[in-house]
Write a structure and sequence with these properties.
By secondary structure, the chain is of the alpha+beta class. Helix 5 runs antiparallel to helix 6 (227-245). It folds into 2 domains: 6-161, no CATH class; 198-361, Histidine kinase-like ATPase, C-terminal domain (Heat Shock Protein 90, 2-Layer Sandwich). Helix content is 66%, strand content 12%. The chain is rod-shaped and about 115 Å long.
Length: 366
């Protein structure tokens, strides 16, 4: 048994109501025109009954026209086939409507009709009603074809948008999945170096790593999180790095509280801070600092990460690929999420070190 489609039935019913409304308006306009231009005195009711009734009969047959039109269209999208399929149907329905129209008119009018008068009525309307019927049939058919093609166009556009969105989500997911193993390998390498020299520190790092991975998995399906949530991830990550670098690493946060509920890409800060530690802290024996700032500027959210290292070399300057996969993936994720509506800059800070700045639309979580 063929499964029914309630949505399709609902659309068919709405289409019939639209056809009925349009035909009713046309019938009403013909009635007014007939009432105004009649050569003999006629009441508005009789004028309405004469013209409006004809269009109401066609409104009853409109679903059949739509069904026949869709059947012809479903077989093949050729104009010749559609015409060949609907031509006999249009002639047949025109004859049927012409035949039943006088009876319905007589039932609804106050006039008395004899057999001779009824025969005369048939002769009067036979040709004109048949021609008008053909015009109405093909007008209804063409209008519904136009609506069907427009609906198909919108549906195809919607499907294309969905596929494009799914592709973008897949790319974002792939980029994010590259970040986690990258961070994981670095952390495991740090743990292995601590196991013999400082087992307690290694155990603490393993525990913090478990916390970080748990937070990551809890939000794995979210491409965006609040800045407050992102800072929780970051602080969990920094606990791991503090165990590794101890007194050599100082972290300074300057976050505007008004930005905490703003939406940011999931794991946007961690690779930037990891890069700052890797290039600005790890290569040097002396202690260093990483400054993390977040504030709103001209309707945009600005995040910046600055380290106190040596800054960019001439080779690295202007080439994010030289700074590692975390930086290049961050740029790609921003592009996937915001198109061209973002800025991602990295440069040597005036006071020394590297500063990475991200600017994105300021969107609050609803």
């Amino acid at each position: 048994m063929k499964e029914s489609n309630p949505k399709r039935k609902h659309q068919f019913f709405r289409r019939w109501l639209l056809d009925w409304a349009i035909l009713s308006l046309i019938g009403l306009s013909f009635s007014v025109s007939y009432f105004i231009t009649a050569t003999e005195p006629v009441s508005f009711y009789e004028a309405l009954n004469w013209q409006f009734t004809r269009f109401q009969i066609w409104a009853v047959f409109a679903p059949i026209i739509v069904w026949l039109g869709r059947r012809a269209r479903s077989e093949k999208q050729q104009v010749f086939r559609i015409i060949a399929f609907n031509l006999p149907s249009s002639v047949f329905l025109s004859v049927v409507v012409t035949a039943i129209f006088p009876f319905i008119f007589i039932l609804t009018t106050s006039q008395q009709f004899s057999y001779e008068k009824l025969s005369g009525l048939y002769r009067t309307i036979a040709v004109s009603n048949s021609i008008m019927g053909l015009v109405i049939y093909w007008a209804v058919l063409t209008a519904n074809y136009a609506i069907d093609y427009y609906d198909d166009f919108r549906a195809e556009k919607h499907r294309a948008a969905l596929l494009e969105n799914q592709l973008a989500q897949a790319k974002l997911h792939a980029l994010k999945m590259q970040l986690n193993p990258h961070f994981l390998f670095n952390t495991l390498n740090s743990i292995s170096s601590l196991v013999l020299d400082n087992p307690k520190a290694a155990n603490r790092m393993i525990a913090r790593l478990g916390d970080f991975l748990r937070l990551t998995l809890d939000n794995d399906s979210n491409q965006e999180v609040t800045l407050e949530r992102e800072l929780e991830f970051l602080k969990c990550y920094l606990e791991i790095e503090r165990i590794r670098f101890q007194d050599r690493l100082t972290i300074n946060f300057e976050i505007d509280e008004a930005t905490l509920n703003a939406q940011v890409p999931n794991l946007i800060l961690q690779p930037l801070v990891e890069n700052a530690i890797k290039h600005g802290i790890a290569p040097h024996a002396k202690s260093g600092r990483v400054d993390i700032r977040g504030y709103r500027k001209n309707g945009s959210l600005q995040l910046s990460v600055r380290d106190t290292g040596a800054g960019l070399s001439k080779v690295e300057n202007g080439n994010p690929a030289k700074l590692g996969i975390g930086i290049s993936n961050t740029r790609e994720r921003l592009k996937q999420l915001y198109g061209e509506n973002f800025k991602f800059d990295f440069a040597n800070a005036a006071e020394g070190g590297l500063i990475v700045t991200v600017e994105m639309p300021f969107n609050l979580k609803l």
